[in-house]
Every structure is written in structure tokens, then in C-alpha cells.
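To: structure subgroup
Subject: Chain for Friday's discussion

All,

I'm putting the inputs and outputs inline so they're searchable in the archive.
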Amino acid sequence: MKKLRILTIDGGGIRGVIPAVILNHIEERLQAKTNNPHATLADYFDMIAGTSTGGILTVLFLLPATAKGDKKKSRYFAKEAIDLYKKHGKAIFKKKVNAGNLSKVLGAIYTEKGLESILKEKVGNVKLSEARKPCLITAYDISSRHAVFFTSPDAVVSPHKDYYMRDIARSTSAAPTYFQPAKINSLSGKTAYLIDGGIFANDPTMSTLVEARKTTFANFDKPNFENMYVVSIGTGKVLKKYSYTTVKRWGLIRWIAPLIDMMMSSSAEVVSYQVQKLFDAIGCSSSYVRLEPDLCMANTEMDDASDKNIKNLENAGLIFVDKNEDLLNEIVDELIRNS
């Protein structure tokens, strides 16, 4: 019996270069093995989900080829997602004028204008309801205080839950202290005030599995976990250590950035543990594949968009591909087998 193919992508700011590189390799292998140079990830995954930078990648991968919403073809290849980080990373993480130590306390470090301009150019007016495949993208509503899951099946049936995808990408990546919260409107005019979904689901896999269970797909009606094949990709292991003798002297201000770092990485670790145990329990261990690359020489900071660091992130992705060629080929074969 064929399985539902699910892709999930973690948050991690500029470190999204790493999963973009890995997914580009998978896409190129799909093209080679099917003898179809036009094949894209959306052709071989039945559902894609992401948080923060993973949410931006999800939007790019699921954009229809034309503004009219043609769902048969994708607008971008995975390689073009890599180029987005390389060409526009500095514009995304552009500090505000006169952004010094005081601004780090009194306001967001980066202006959102660069990111919004790029999203408007690359995504345009495509709506969530027009996504090529079912998707889930996370955010958190600071006004009504609840987790938000942008899902295309919900958007199809309700303008109240339909948004422009550029606004969703802006919202899921509105990391506290880095960018201002996003204020967006649904197509019905409902206003939401949102921040990065990484504060509760930096790895969106568990949320995605739950959503998939209640979704009707082209060939699956509310599939069981036994019917799923999941590929989950991280943005690089963060192994930065904090010294007890240093940390014990910290107060509120000095804890902010490390706390966000620990919160996002630990939430992803917990989800990965839970999902693996879930698939082990139902006897389908091989149906969950977690790819967690090493950062190698790249900076752990998610806002280091320097040319050097982006190159190091790209190399980290290529090193992972080189070391895991057999595993990635198995993933490609499984995607094709279940198409």
C-alpha cells in the first residue's frame, strides 16, 4: 500500500540554507531518476510543513507556476530557494538605522521592510488556498494568545482562514527581538498579530502529523500514522554551551537571546524524540527519517547573513549530502515508489 509523503522543515533563520541545499539534492535526484528535468518537490510530497525559515521554504516550494493558481506546476525549483538566501540574506537581516545596544533593549534589531519587499516580489498575491499541496505553517497570536496553524485545506473552505502566502511567510519568521510582530489580515478582513511559530514548534512534525490525520488528500482520506512516510529536516545542530559560572550572574536582559536559542532547539529535540517513539510503537521506524546536519564551520547564530557564513552554511549542507548519499537515495526511491 502506498504511503502519504510528508516533508517538514525546522526554523533557524539564515540557517535555512542547509535544508535548502539538501532538498535541492533530493529534487535533482528525483529529476534524474524519473528522467523529468521539470520535477519539483511538490510533485513528490503530498504535504509540506515548516516553521519560520522552514515556513518560508514551504511557501516557495508550494507556489503555483502562474499567478492564476495553476496547481500542476511549481514556480520555483529548490535551487532558487538557495539563491534567495545567498542574494537577499543581507537585505532580510538589515539592521535599523542607528541600531545600537539601546535598540536591542527597546525594539527589534532588524527592520522588516527588506523581508516584506522580497516576499512581495517572490510570492506576490498567491493565496494560501492556492498552494499546490496541503501545507501547515506555524505562528503564534500574541493578541488572542494561541498557537496558529495556517493550513491550506482550511483556507480552501473558509476565507476567514485564507491569507496571502507572503503574509504567512512574514508571520512565521517574526522571531522575537529580531523582527517586529506581523500584523496581517485574512481575505475576510480578520486581523491577526503574530510572531514566529518557533516559540512552540520549531520542528513542526508532530503538529503536521495531527493535521494530516484529519485531512482528506487526493489518494488518502484521513490517513493513519501507519500510512505516512515522513522526512523531517533540521537547520543544523546547535551545540553552543553555556558556562554555569557565567550564566549564574545573568539577569533578564542577558538571558533573552540565549533563552530563545535554548527554547527553539529544545522544542525541536522533544518533537523528534516523540515522533520517533510514535513510529517505533506502531512498528514503522523506517517511515520517519530525521535529517539533522552538523553546522561544521558555520555560525550558530540565525542572523549571520555574511557572505562567509552563508558559504559555510552551504558547505555544511553539501558535506551532509556527501556523507549521506545512500540515505538520500533511499528517500528519493521511497518518494518515487509512493507516487
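Points worth raising on Friday:
The chain has a mean pLDDT of 93.
The first helix runs from residue 17 to 34.

D.
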